Amino acid sequence: MSDAVTGRLVTVSTKFQREALRPGGINRSGANAASDRSVKAMKADVETQIEAAIVPLVTLLQDWVPAQAAKGCGWAASTRDLAGLAGRHLLTEVAMHAFDCLDAVMIDGVDMRQDEAKVYADALVFAQQDMCRGNDIEPFRPLLKNLKTLTDRIVARAMPAEAAR
What we know:
The protein has a single domain, classed as Four Helix Bundle (Hemerythrin (Met), subunit A), CATH 1.20.120. The chain is about 70% helix and about 0% strand. It contains seven helices and no strands. Helix 2 packs antiparallel against helix 3 (about 70-85), helix 3 (about 70-85) runs antiparallel to helix 4 and helix 4 (about 90-110) packs antiparallel against helix 5 (about 115-130). The N and C termini lie far apart (about 75 Å).
């Protein structure tokens, strides 16, 4: 004789199921339509928030003022996070590099030159065009490699001269 406990099936009725079955309840197609409207509204809200963060970030980087690096860091973090949520992976990657650089400027006091800041601004404007939705960022690997190289060079300025050798 086995020591295994035999189970039994129990039917569970959720509140959603009870509401859907009662007269005047919502049917499946109505629920799907309502969820589609809700998702579209959320997507539009996220896109609006991305624009609200990226526009001042690009403006700051085009007219680089090191004293405003903290604001730029906040905008870059918002852009990075929201673009990831929206599936805009190229914009996420570019904003991540901009954030890393601005963080080094703000925290470590690293010097970023005007022409370097403009590179990040140009890359953000390019990524903002939304040419890459989804995970296929392979065509943009050279751009991302160059941004990583620039970010690494700027961040390396924070290291003492002996450690950099």
